[in-house]
Amino acid sequence: MFHFLLLLLLFILQISHFTSEKTTTITSSSSTKNNLVYTSCTNASYPKICIRTLSSYSTIKTPKDLAKASLNVSISRANKASKFLKNLKVKSKREKGAIVDCIEQISDSIYDLRKALFELKHLHKGYGFKFQINNLETWVSGALTYDDTCLDGFKEIDGNVRYDVKRKISNVAKVTSNALYLINQLDRSG
Ligand SMILES: *[C@@H]1O[C@H](CO)[C@@H](O)[C@H](O)[C@H]1NC(C)=O
Ligand SMILES: *[C@@H]1O[C@H](CO)[C@@H](O)[C@H](O)[C@H]1NC(C)=O
After folding, report:
1. CB–CB of 105/147 below 8 Å?
2. How far is the C-alpha of 161 from the C-alpha of 59, rounded, in Å?
3. pLDDT per residue over 57-76, tens digit each?
4. Which ligand sits nearest to residue 63's alpha carbon?
5. Is the separation of the CB atoms in 53 and 186 below 8 Å?
C-alpha cells in the first residue's frame, strides 16, 4: 500500500512537472513570435484588426514576413467578399448593376494584391529595392481604390444589401490599409 502511494505521488509529480514545462515553452515562444506583430501593429491604420488577423501566423519572423502575411490576409478576405457578392440575392436592376461592378472591382483588386505579394516574395536588397517597394505601394493603394469604387456604387442603394456589402468591403479595405502601412514601414527600414 505504501509503495503504491509513493508511486502514485511520483506519477503525479511527473505529470505536473511535464505540464508546467510545456506551458512555459508555449508562452515564451508565442510571446517572442508575437512581439513583432504587436509593436508593428501599434501605429497601423487599424491596430486591433492588425493584431487579430496577424498574431496567429507562426511564420512571422521579420517585418517582411509580416507584410507578406498581411497581403495574404487581404487576398483571402477579398476572395471571401467576392464569393459573398456572387451569392447575394438581388431585388432590382440597380442592385444587380452595383453588385456586378463591385465583383469586377474586387477581382481587379485581388489581381493587384497578388502582384504585390509576388513582388514582395522576390524583393531584393540594395539595387532595385526602392523601385520594387514603389510598385508594391502602387498596387496596394490601387487595390484600396477599387474597394472605394465598389462602395461608391452602392451610395444610391438602400437597405440590407448596401449594409452587408459595406460591412464586407470595409473589412477588406481595413486589412488592405494595414498591409499598405506595413509595406510603407519596409520602405523606411530598407
Ligand atoms: C508609433 O508612433 C509613435 C508616435 O509617433 C512613435 O513614438 C513610435 O515610435 C511609433 N511606433 C512604431 C512601432 O512605429
Ligand atoms: C496564406 O493564406 C492561405 C489561406 O488563405 C494559407 O493556406 C497560406 O499558407 C498562407 N500563406 C502564407 C505565406 O502565410
Report:
1. yes
2. 37
3. 888 899 999 999 999 999 99
4. 1
5. no
The whole-number pLDDT of residue 164 equals 93
Nearest CA to ligand 1 atom 6: 43
Cell numbers 509503495 correspond to 3
Q: Which residues contact 93 (CB under 8 A, 6 or more apart)?
A: none
Q: Which residues line ligand 2 (CB under 6 A)?
A: 57, 59, 68-69, 72, 76
Selection from 82, 53, 81, 77 nearest residue 67 by Cα: 53
If you search the block for the grid coordinates 524583393, which residue do you land on? 123
- pLDDT digits 0-9 by tens, 139-181: 999 999 999 999 999 998 888 889 999 999 999 999 999 999 9
Half-sphere exposure at residue 150, Cβ-oriented, CA atoms within 13 angstroms: 33
Domain at 34-189: CATH code:
1.20.140.40
Taking 3-state DSSP, the helix, strand and coil percentages for the chain, each rounded to the nearest 5, stand at 80, 0, 20
122 is written with which cell numbers?
522576390
Q: Is 126 left (phi over 0), alpha (psi -120 to 50) or beta?
A: left
- What Rg, from alpha-carbon coordinates, does the chain have? 23
Which ligand approaches the C-alpha of residue 42 most closely?
1
